[in-house]
Amino acid sequence: MASTRVIAPYVLVLPSFVLAALIVIWPVNELAQLASHSVNRFGQIRDFVGMANFAALLDDPNFIASLWRTGIWTIGVVGGAIICSVPVALVLNEDFYGRDLARVIVMLPWAVSLTMTAIVWRWALSGESGMLNSALLELGVIDQNIQWLAEASTAFPMQILIGILVTIPFTVTIILGGLSSIPDDLYEAAALEGAGRWEQFRHITLPLIAPFLNIALVLNTIYVFNSFPIIWAMTQGGPANSTDILVTYLYKVGFRLGKLGEASAVSLVMFGILLVFTLIYVRLTTAKGAKI
């Protein structure tokens, strides 16, 4: 009986583990095969080249630039979304007239296709007839049209801002879940002790929603790191590859240049980065939990 109790959890988990392993391990194995061989644009595997495809990536300045830009993109969008979502979630958690409607309005961007959102913003940021230029000219903020998407100095920051905008609804949903789990008694007791709103937020709200912030951090990092539509639909990595991130660089290498071996190598690099991030996060979370 005791041995059955020990084995039972592993037996129950085994089917899911096998399925997850097949979903992950098989594609990674196929990518490794492509990345270590010479592959023509039709996907036919030829000679074994070892690490030559990875060496070619390191020799490509566009890959290095895309790698750094991916880090900026991910940190900017994820960090900005969390910073903006916390106050929004705090407001939506309050009891006020029209709260349900306000929640629906905040969630609406999440229901719209990312590609459609990016196309609409591409029109809005048009240097000649865009709504943003028209509004700024009308308000007297600028005296001539700005080519928002024609220069990297303005195009990439705008893409980060749009990335933050479309990430906020999902993040707010997660944080609202955490806020709704906090008992009101804690705030009432803190108020009786003379704690103000800031002290309540710092000592009650923030520690109790920390696990939910961690979930938002991990899921958004994985999602944003691999995000393709915003960059591609707005600039296709231009001008002159100056807004490329790894996923758009991969697309160009694989489908425009036909270098499937190098594209597979980029995929493995991306997989490795996310795997290392996840392992470090799990390690830090486990260590913190052990101390508590």
Automatic annotation (TrEMBL):
<dbReference type="InterPro" id="IPR000515">
    <property type="entry name" value="MetI-like"/>
</dbReference>
<feature type="transmembrane region" description="Helical">
    <location>
        <begin position="204"/>
        <end position="225"/>
    </location>
</feature>
<keyword id="KW-0812">Transmembrane</keyword>
<dbReference type="InterPro" id="IPR035906">
    <property type="entry name" value="MetI-like_sf"/>
</dbReference>
<feature type="domain" description="ABC transmembrane type-1">
    <location>
        <begin position="67"/>
        <end position="281"/>
    </location>
</feature>
<keyword id="KW-0472">Membrane</keyword>
<feature type="transmembrane region" description="Helical">
    <location>
        <begin position="263"/>
        <end position="282"/>
    </location>
</feature>
<keyword id="KW-0762">Sugar transport</keyword>
<keyword id="KW-0813">Transport</keyword>
<feature type="transmembrane region" description="Helical">
    <location>
        <begin position="7"/>
        <end position="28"/>
    </location>
</feature>
<comment type="similarity">
    <text>Belongs to the binding-protein-dependent transport system permease family.</text>
</comment>
<feature type="transmembrane region" description="Helical">
    <location>
        <begin position="71"/>
        <end position="92"/>
    </location>
</feature>
<keyword id="KW-1133">Transmembrane helix</keyword>
<feature type="transmembrane region" description="Helical">
    <location>
        <begin position="160"/>
        <end position="183"/>
    </location>
</feature>
<dbReference type="Pfam" id="PF00528">
    <property type="entry name" value="BPD_transp_1"/>
</dbReference>
<protein>
    <submittedName>
        <fullName>Multiple sugar transport system permease protein</fullName>
    </submittedName>
</protein>
<feature type="transmembrane region" description="Helical">
    <location>
        <begin position="104"/>
        <end position="124"/>
    </location>
</feature>
<keyword id="KW-1003">Cell membrane</keyword>
<dbReference type="GO" id="GO:0055085">
    <property type="term" value="P:transmembrane transport"/>
</dbReference>
<dbReference type="GO" id="GO:0005886">
    <property type="term" value="C:plasma membrane"/>
</dbReference>
